[in-house]
Amino acid sequence: MTPTLLDGDKVWVNKLAYDVKIPFTEVSLAQLADPKRGDIVIIDSAVANKRLVKRIVGLPGDTIYMQNNTLVINGISADYDILEQNERDIIIQEHLPDRTHQVRLSSGLINRNGRSYGPTFVPEDNYFVLGDNRDNSADSRVYSFVPRGEIIGRSSSVVFSLDSNNRYLPRGDRFLSELD
Prior knowledge:
mainly beta, 2% helix
């Protein structure tokens, strides 16, 4: 999820954002809200057999496709602004219909297979998710749609962060910082 999340970030997960569940289980007692486009969600993926952190870009009923890393939702292309560029990667701002966030693309020839995808129709009670590190993300392009029942909760902030490149010292500027 780079650049939104950094290696060593520990995020706050609001498990009551969408459902009331029986404690210590994934059994939903009541739905409180539906996930929205742009939400950063934690997924207990049965297909990947692990927990994933991804961004929702496709809602039930949407038609999604990507052409050379340009995301198109229901025939409307996302807008992009280049924020930073170097030899290894490009940081862009992606403007979805409801949310704006940063995305990282690789400048080189790494993993160009996932840059074009679809079109695909998001079925009822499923979501299409992408990682913000687009050229290095196992997301709905790999694992397919995410069923509503696999979404554990929404994350909107970093609780704390430890810098693995600096002897795991805390990153003070990341403490309690909000996520885009």
